[in-house]
Amino acid sequence: MKSTTLETAALDRAVADLRRNAESWCATPLAERIALLERLMPRIRAAAADMAAAAARAKGYAPDSPWAAEDWAGGPWALAQNTSAYLHVLRRIAAGKDPVAVGAVREQGGRVAVGVFPATGWDRVLLSGFSAEVWMRDGITPEQVLAEAAGEYRGAAGRPAVALVLGAGNVASITALDILHKLYAEGQVVLAKMNPVNAYLRPCFEQVFADFIGRGWVRFVDGGAAEGAYLTGHDGVDSLHVTGSDRTHDAIVWGTDEHAEQRRRDDRPLVDKPFTSELGGVSPCIVVPGPWRDADFRFQAEHIVTSKMNNSGHNCIASQVLVLPREWAGAERLLDEIRTVLRALPPRTDYYPGAEQRLTAVRATHPAAEVHGGDSRILVPDITRHDDTLITDEVFASALGVVRLPGDSPDEFLNHAVDFANDRLPGTLGATLIVHPKTEKAHPAAVKSAIAKLRYGTLGVNCWSGVGFLLGYTPWGAFPGHTRQDIGSGTGFVHNAFMLEGVEKTVVRAPFAPAPRGLLTGSPSLSPRPPYFVTNRTGRTTLERVTGFTTAPRIAELPAIFASALRG
Questions:
Q1: Angle formed by the axes of helices 444-453 and 410-424, nearest 10°
Q2: What is the Cα–Cα distance from 139 to 103, expressed in whole angstroms?
Q3: Which residue in 103, 134, 84, 236 sits closest to 501, CA to CA?
Q4: Which residues pair with 276 in a beta bridge?
């Protein structure tokens, strides 16, 4: 492809550099790949404060604001945690072990699941009571799981190739994590086009990936839609990965002219390269009725508000529809606590482009909607129409709608909730299910069935599903089944440090209540209020310390982490 302008000439050079060096990355031995990740860790530590501060300022608050906890969690800590996960798995392989321990694979009811978290002793210390298992697609056997994991390092390495990563503009670590996945899970060198919304992070990323840039394995470029379109069609680019919306995917694959819809119907794509994507959707938070105490209502209100207000709702995985039991007396109590939490949060703005227009559309549809703590924290407490914009469209901003479904018992309610989530809400990226341990113990079949039937790539049980994005060991992507003609929440999984094949979904669990109250609810752990909660008073400090610890674990740093966490 010949360049016609100065701007495309720079893009061509970046692609050419990567093509020249793609074979050398494929030939890089395991020991050196591990060493590169080990050298990445101190670079993450050195860039962490600048990365978090740049994100905070871009969103309109100070780096020492309580809101900045999200910039540590979704920025340097997520990058360090994912790097740590790859290191754990690759070191196992280097030591002559299988990537997945035999004992981590279980078969129950004809389905295979793999326990992936906690994977290390530090995981158990820092996230006590949190766990994750990966459910495999129907028909996958335990033997297949063990044999096919980490194929890149066990005889099934890919050919030299150049991957284009179209970076996300909302969460700092997404682009960096997609780069790591392409390099380490797929064996491809990477051209990363920064999103214009957070292109300010490029200097931080170039600092972190300096070794890879120096060897010609990673390149960063800036630009908007025109540069992205040029690169997706570039002859020197072999595969694509994008985080964004279904509209972004469709514009790349089918175009934006008057013939785009006909191309889709005929399955005649403009770009026919291997293409993975994470595209969001309308995420539900389903609350099962149960014997909640006063403190449970407050804690879970903070949990639900976090799943909405983290990053002002500019997350593909933000809770948008709260699904409540219509007949449960606790529903109104929970909503009252949610209102209290929303009002008490410090001010901030919805910074992402288009947010104000989307919120205006919500207000126009619901002129009586409640607004708490400013102009943008919208709560619609009783959605009655299934064609409501909060049900049909991803708002990608700080608006939360409530849908009340029938059910006199947890069993009946869960049947309605699962059908509603699967059949009415667009997208399959993630869902959250909140259930009291005593309710799950009394209704095990109903809860187990709901977990099995919910068609989402990540399901959080008493845990915002967004946590699955952070852990590194957990695959991140939409529930399988979407096609390029009906892309939904996308195709493929990233992160996935064990490099599992045949993934269906990840189930992440967390304690229903923090320590020490978890003992009373049947979910004992040592975890206090999570530092990523928007109500955590010391979340920023705790996550800053956890980030440093993750890059270089030292027992001497644990007391300071625990002291901050307990004050939260």
A1: 0
A2: 20
A3: 134
A4: 241
The angle formed by the CA atoms of residues 122, 127 and 132, to the nearest 5 degrees, is 100
Cα separation, 337 vs 535, in Å, equals: 13
Residue type, 99: P
Which pLDDT tens digit goes with each residue over 348-394?
Answer: 989 999 999 999 999 999 998 999 987 679 999 999 888 899 999 99
Rounded distance, CA 145 to CA 164, Å? Answer: 28
- Number of residues that this document lists for the chain: 568
Positive or negative, the CA dihedral 439, 441, 446, 452 is positive
pLDDT digits 0-9 by tens, 124-182? 999 999 999 999 999 999 999 999 999 999 988 889 999 999 999 999 999 999 999 99
How far apart are the C-alpha atoms of 23 and 565, rounded to whole Å?
46
Q: Provide CB contacts within 8 A for 460, sequence distance 6+.
A: 430, 431, 432, 433, 466, 467, 468, 508, 509, 510
**Which residues sit opposite 322 in a β-bridge?**
285, 402
From residue 390, give the alpha-carbon distance in Å to each of 134, 292, 319, 332, 403.
30, 28, 11, 20, 10
Q: Are 432 and 456 in contact (CB under 8 A)?
A: no
What number of helices (H) and strands (E) belong to the chain?
A: 23, 18
Does residue 286 contact residue 424 with C-beta atoms inside 8 Å?
no
How far is residue 282's CA from residue 320's CA, in Å, rounded to a whole number? 6
HEC profile of 211-233: HHHHCCCEEEECCCHHHHHHHHC
> Among 199, 193, 206, which Cα is nearest to 232's?
193
d(Cα 128, Cα 147) in Å, to the nearest integer?
30
Q: 């910074």: which residue's tokens?
A: 351
Query: For the stretch 134-147, what's the b/e string if a residue is b when 16 or more beta carbons lie within 10 angstroms of its beta carbon?
Result: bbbeeebebeebbe
- Burial of 312-323, coded b for 16+ CB within 10 Å and e otherwise, reads bbbbbbbbbbbb
